[in-house]
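Q: Second attempt. The first request was missing the SMILES, so the protein and zinc ion are both included now.
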Amino acid sequence: MSKLEEHLAEKGILLADGATGTTLFDMGLQSGDAPELWNVDEPDKIRAMHKGFLDAGADIILTNTFGGNKHRLKLSNDAHRVRELNAAGVDRAREAAAETGREVLIGGSVGPTGELFQPLGALTYEEAVEAFSEQMEALVEAGVDVLWVETMSAAEEMKAASEAAKDKGVPLILTASFDTAGRTMMGLPPKGLNDLRAEFSCTPVAIGSNCGVGASDLLAAILEITEADPEAIVVAKGNCGIPQISGKDLIYSGTPDLMADYARLAVDAGARIIGGCCGTSASHLAAMRGALDSHEKTDRPSVEDVIERIGPLVSPPNKAAESGESPRRNRRRG
Ligand SMILES: [Zn+2]
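A: Got both inputs this time. The predicted holo structure:
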């Protein structure tokens, strides 16, 4: 049994952390700068981010390595620093974890390459496997407990990531973002993730959803995944309420109380690993910890229950998407 499975068996439900990106922006990271550089240049801030989530009660924290593949890092001319920046990200998380005095899990965050696959773009499947493999090797060597592939959209890219995760010696978690009329930007519905699992070279121990649009949309996706496979270990890492445009920024409407209710609904919907994505701060996470500690799993909610308690769907499924027509593409950050 892996350390992740041991913790799941012991605790039943695990609390993952909150948002890396929006937390670092609050600490002064400028939009357009590679967050991974801060693993080396601003180690105190990265440790402080992790410490905030750990003090709030997180059982799992994710490394600040979401964009740590060579395709993303080449945008800041840092493609040659994959090993260094990923190892530093793991070190910062471990340092913060060591201070807590309790055993916490470290997930090595792996985001998309940011490139489109051929024939839509230039990236080949082999190149994607190679880029993921380079990053994952660095994360595993530095000591992560699990490889955590997130914010995925394209089936091909998920397959490439799972192939890269094969034989790396730690379990794989894979989550997608369903941000476009209930599907990923590339048209995959939540239950499509269950189906894809059989095609993965390395079977993820857990699948699920992160980020996307609103927390309600995310819970709707979780309901579809747990309905398709009630036995699956499912991850829910939703954004903090509903995204709203404020000047040049996207802000999130969720209060700690709302995110506590989101956490209870995620449990009732069948999720076993629950955290927050964009907008979820340490104070939101502390409220989620309290909710998980005091909530007894109850009846499975409907999408209507979710809407009533958390708010409307930002990007509800539409008839065009249901009939197989390609969905409208939304702009979204990782
Ligand atoms: Zn997010």
